[in-house]
What we know:
By secondary structure, this protein is mostly beta strands.
Amino acid sequence: MADIGNTTPPGANDEPFGIENNAAGIVITMPEDGSLTSISAWVYGSSGVGDAHTARAAIYATDGTLLGTSDEAGPFTLTSPDSAIEFPFSAPVALNNGVSYIIMVGGSPGGGSLIVAGTNLIGGGKKFSFTYTSGFPNPATIRDESTDYWLYATYTSNGGGANIPAAHRHYMRQKRAS
């Protein structure tokens, strides 16, 4: 299995974003053919009162077409993102080499706030509002966002494609900037 997206834990100066009836995500571009098995995100409750929240992850085509949703996770009782929460997919989603996808996490309303970690320093995030109890919309109108969120996808390789290791986007940006 390989990971693609923001796999490094968020830092102390990262900006949280409330995901109650909202979805936040990032764009990934597949380095090889594969099957999505899960999406992970640094999701947590605020002030210890987030335990009434649940959340799901979803994957979209860049045109807003819903390709799949994860199993529900929660309730969330953490008050800091000590580790990423995994959102497994009961039905793996086929992903194609060189194609970009949007991975999202969205949460239910409840006491306090349900947060996903992000940073305003980089940008490149995506988001939309929706009614959690109705499920992720298909299609979705996904907006660009100045925050880059801490999510990543885990997939199994189907072979073929470029067969290069999935690279962390920030590392690649640093390499391009130098």
